[in-house]
């Protein structure tokens, strides 16, 4: 039996693997991560509501990182199918922001 956390991680891994096709070799080092909740200090460009994901741009020796926040996603979803749909949307938005293209161009 898989826990909710393990199931969520599996969804993010699956979506991240599909996103790699859009990232190509230029962004091959992008990391995908899951965190329970967002930090309490949203970035100035983010909504003041709890974020469901975030793109952390490259800094120093660290590469780009796309983070999906488990609890905010789960509170918005009624079931695992909706969790997967929200994760796809979040990752597509963050990949689009990284590539500077409209999110509609990223089909996960």
Task: Set down the secondary structure blueprint.
Layout: H1 4-23, E1 31-35, E2 53-56, E3 65-69, H2 70-76, H3 80-99
Parallel strand pairs: 1-3
Antiparallel strand pairs: 2-3
Helix pairs in contact: 1-3
List keywords for this structure.
108 residues; three-stranded mixed sheet; 44% helix; globular
Explain this structure to me?
By secondary structure, the protein is of the alpha+beta class. It contains 3 helices and 3 strands; from the N terminus they run H-E-E-E-H-H. It has helices at 4-23, 70-76, 80-99; strands at residues 31-35, 53-56, 65-69. A 3-stranded mixed beta sheet has the order 1-3-2. Helix 1 (4-23) packs parallel to helix 3. The longest helix is centred in the first third of the chain and has 20 residues, at 4-23.
